[in-house]
Amino acid sequence: MKRKCLDRDVWWKYNKFEDVQYYQIRVDTEDFHGWVGLIQLNDGTYHYWDFPKAGKTAVIGKGMTWLQMIPDGQKRVITAIYLPDQALSVCYTDVIESIEYDTDGVLVYIDKYLDVIFTPQGDTAIDDRDELEDAFRSGKLSKGQYDAAIKECDSILSELCSDIAATSRRFSKILHYVNEKIRKGEEKPFAKQ
Prior knowledge:
Elements: E1 2-5, H1 9-14, E2 20-28, E3 33-41, E4 47-51, E5 55-60, E6 65-71, E7 76-82, E8 88-101, E9 107-118, E10 124-127, H2 129-137, H3 143-161, H4 164-183
Antiparallel strand pairs: 1-9, 2-3, 3-6, 4-5, 6-7, 7-8, 8-9, 9-10
């Protein structure tokens, strides 16, 4: 299992993004309880994924926002990717083992291979199932960890993908809440300790 920082700093450097702001916020609202990492991309070239229903879909680029949510009591990191006009582009949900903090105070999640991807247009896909299977066969994951990953994947599909329009509205409310806190100066870009 890989350790991944919620600020995705390694990923941005690899893709040559230089002006990226990261916010790490505890959110407790009617719609969400958990941690949120907000990444604002202020520069960078657009990259796209292709989907059967959504077609060519932007995943990174100047002016886009990544809203990453770690709901309390669940084993997932939901990344809702927004276009500059705040329209939802795509959601990528990592199944995780746990969360912790790096030495700078940035949230870190232990990725458990399996991912669920969905678009507002109704595309849904399970990604990296082969990596999960390989990890189980090689002994990197116990039977309990494997079963928990499958159960979380099924839960994500049921809770987030059965009514994608409602999920999109819920995520937009969370994004609006976080953006308002930033606009009002209640949250500042995360400063590593």
